[in-house]
Write a structure and sequence with these properties.
The chain is of the alpha+beta class. 31% of the residues lie in helices and 27% in strands.
Length: 708
């Protein structure tokens, strides 16, 4: 029996199940094919991306295999031959050798493999000749520019998509074209490196949007190589864990995403087919659950609101093939509410699995993640290459995103071709951000790195950043009713600022708020600006120093506690630019409503201490917040109902306040009706409360404990 690519030996099963367990998937596939029949196709290459054309042919070809209805074959041929008769594949940028071409090699490679026997000899030869031509263009470009293009950008979506397209076509035409063996060997070598060098925690530095854009290609390559070469890349740490990166970067309503890095919008991150393939490969009920959820509830809204192209609708054929009825759904409410992805320095905190839950994410790492940063530097130093393509990675070290009550409250700007610190929820120093934001001389910018003719910013902000210029998480711990995170990023700021420390600490004690402390130290005096961006303007609560952001059903109360001489202002930050060079008229504009907190007088060393409380926008309950200040320590006392939390930090490890004594770096005590119900000690040997020793240890250690 013929071996159909991706279908493998399951064609009979797919046929048998089309009116039973796959009935709704068949309906979805045929509805997508019906849509294709109404589309007009240009005899000339349109002035835009044509990635969708290969997917159209693949959908129609599968529909023909399943139904043997001639109109699906006729329509598949219309899409196939229209594009095969284009002189080139692609528009405006890297024509024939990048995404438009590779998406077509993927879709048309499958189409050729699936329906070549139903083409006339002349038709078959025409398609074969075009695939050989385009495949060689892609292959040769990658080889000729090795070390300086996508062919060695091992961590970037263009590498995965371009080489998966080439590999698909190579396996499809290998019986008739001997040169395909060379393609296969090079692509196999590439993905051996990719799957080995991707982060073990499954995170993707390009964000959830590009994760969904590229994940089907990684899954396809793993499938093709496993079936044809016997090498199982599904059995690698990245592939085993990457679903949970995506799951934990879902908003509590599950329909939207957490949009760190280049994510076009909060509706561009689901792939039903990817979820089904992951569910099938790993018997993962969580993936099956969210795949069905998106299919049944979110599919069409994602299709019309997402700015990702070609989007979710053309993946119908993959959904049909990869669905596995034997995987039972499992809701995520049996998973921990917190998760840490070490390579990206990404911590996720949820208050529950409910739709109105608080969702807080913060990240800080070397640019592009630690594993990519270190390995790419080694490769580049050894070979004289440039393997880092970080244009989709933002200046968002120590930045956070906060959602609650189904509403975005502290937001990221999402897709942005000019990455800057000031458009993220981080601290700027005298108005400056990352060292890479400095404008390069006109002659040093390549076309792909210049975002506009006026050169108001740079596309690849990380290109000339030095190896030692990284951010990193110093500590993370989640237990005993606390989650603690601290990350340091001073090396990523302008050297002229002479920063020696920029550490952001987050403490969540499961009390409905986040304590955030930023420690700034420098050899020079500065004005530091703490920034929080929202969809709506923050408004000062009358009579007290609290700022409130109301957005739909959710509200965020910001309590600025320190520095003592702080001043606050509200401003609007406007971002307006094109989405892609292939669609220059597709312009995205976003207006960030920004709360800025600053020290009034320039100082070398400053601590920002803020409390972020989420609640329903229909509730106006406020916390009672009181600063704690001494020459040896600083902190905050927060009263909520009958509970009080005292957080105290001392860089001298000398805490003595209100009956509390400790040699720790910081402590937290939560009391309910004056009884200690939980406590946290960081880098300490003792904690006394009203002369009662509640923690003792011979050596400095961390202890987070909830008293049952």
């Amino acid at each position: 029996m013929k071996n159909y690519l991706l279908i493998n030996n399951k064609l009979e099963q797919l046929l048998d199940e089309k009116l039973t367990v796959r009935k709704t998937h068949l309906t979805r596939l045929l509805e997508q094919c019906k849509w294709y029949e109404g589309q007009k196709l240009s005899a000339e290459h349109p002035p835009t991306s044509i990635t969708y054309m290969g997917m159209a042919a693949a959908n129609l070809s599968l529909a023909y295999l399943l139904t043997k209805q001639e109109h699906y074959l006729t329509e598949a041929k219309r899409w196939l031959f229209t594009a095969c008769r284009y002189e080139c594949w692609g528009y405006g940028f890297l024509v024939d050798v990048d995404l438009s071409a590779s998406w077509l090699l993927f879709g048309f490679g499958l189409t050729y493999n699936w329906i070549a026997e139903y083409l006339s000899p002349e038709e078959k030869q025409e398609v074969l000749d075009k695939l050989i031509l385009q495949g060689n263009k892609m292959f040769n470009y990658g080889e000729e520019n090795r070390g300086n293009c996508w062919s060695t950008n091992y961590w970037q979506n263009h590498n995965w998509i371009n080489y998966t397209g080439l590999l698909t076509t190579a396996y499809a035409i290998a019986p008739e074209y001997k040169g395909a063996k060379n393609w296969i060997d090079v692509v196999k070598d590439n993905f051996e490196k990719v799957f080995k060098w991707m982060p073990e925690d499954g995170s993707d530095y390009e964000g959830t949007g590009y994760w969904r854009y590229a994940i089907n290609f990684l899954l396809t390559t793993a499938d093709l190589i496993k079936e044809n070469e016997g090498v199982d890349y599904f059995d690698t740490p990245f592939m085993k864990n990457t679903f949970y990166y995506r799951l934990y970067q879902s908003a509590p309503n599950w329909e939207e995403n957490i949009n760190f890095s280049d994510v076009h919008d909060r509706k561009s991150s689901h792939s039903i087919s990817a979820y089904y393939k992951i569910a099938s490969e790993y018997n993962n009920g969580h993936a099956q659950w969210i795949g069905n959820l998106v299919k049944n509830k979110f599919l069409f809204r994602e299709a019309y609101e997402s700015k990702l192209f070609p989007g979710i609708m053309p993946e119908a054929f993959l959904e049909y093939i990869w669905y596995n009825k034997d995987v039972y759904e499992e809701e995520p409410n049996n998973l921990p509410l917190t998760r840490y992805f070490a390579d990206l320095g990404l911590a996720v905190i949820r208050s529950s699995w409910d739709r109105d839950a608080m969702h807080f994410s913060i990240k800080s790492s070397a640019p592009g993640g630690h594993k990519q940063w270190e390995k790419s530097w080694d490769l580049d130093t050894e070979k004289g290459w440039r393997t880092r393509s970080l244009t989709h990675y933002h200046v968002d070290f120590n930045s956070f995103i906060l959602m609650s009550h189904d509403s975005p409250l502290a937001i990221d700007e999402g897709f942005h071709r000019t990455s800057r610190a000031k458009v993220h929820n981080i601290i700027t120093v005298d108005g400056t951000g990352c060292v890479g934001e400095k404008i390069w001389d006109e002659g040093t910018l390549e076309d792909s790195e210049r975002f506009d003719l006026n050169c108001k910013g740079v596309y690849n902000v990380w290109r000339d950043v030095k190896r030692e210029a990284i951010a990193e998480v110093e500590d993370y711990k989640s237990e005993g009713g606390y989650t603690y995170y601290i990350a340091e990023s001073s090396k990523l700021y302008y050297p002229e600022m002479a920063l020696t420390r920029n550490a952001r600490m987050v403490l969540y004690s499961e009390m409905g708020y986040i304590i955030m402390m930023d420690e700034l130290k420098s050899e020079k005096e500065h004005k530091y600006t703490w920034r929080l961006h929202g969809e709506q303007f923050a408004k000062k609560v009358e009579g007290i120093n609290v700022y409130r952001v109301k957005n739909g059903k959710g509200s965020l109360n910001i309590y600025p506690v320190m520095p003592d001489n702080l001043e606050c202002r509200i401003e609007e930050t406007v971002i307006r630019e094109i989405m892609t060079p292939q669609r220059p008229d597709d312009i995205r504009e976003i207006k960030l409503k920004t709360l800025c907190i600053e020290n009034q007088d320039k100082e070398k060393n400053v601590h920002f201490l803020n409390v972020l409380q989420t609640e329903s926008s229909f509730s106006d309950e406020l916390l009672e917040v009181k600063p704690i200040k001494d020459e040896n320590f600083l902190g905050i006392e927060i009263k909520k109902g009958n509970k009080i939390e005292q957080f105290i930090y001392s860089d001298k490890s000398n805490i003595d306040y209100d009956g509390i004594r400790s040699d720790a770096k910081w402590i937290s005590i939560v009391k309910e009706n004056d009884e200690v119900v939980k406590y946290a000690v960081c880098q300490g040997t003792s904690l006394q409360v009203n002369d009662l020793n509640i923690f003792e240890n011979e050596n400095p250690s961390n202890q987070f404990y909830e008293i049952k």
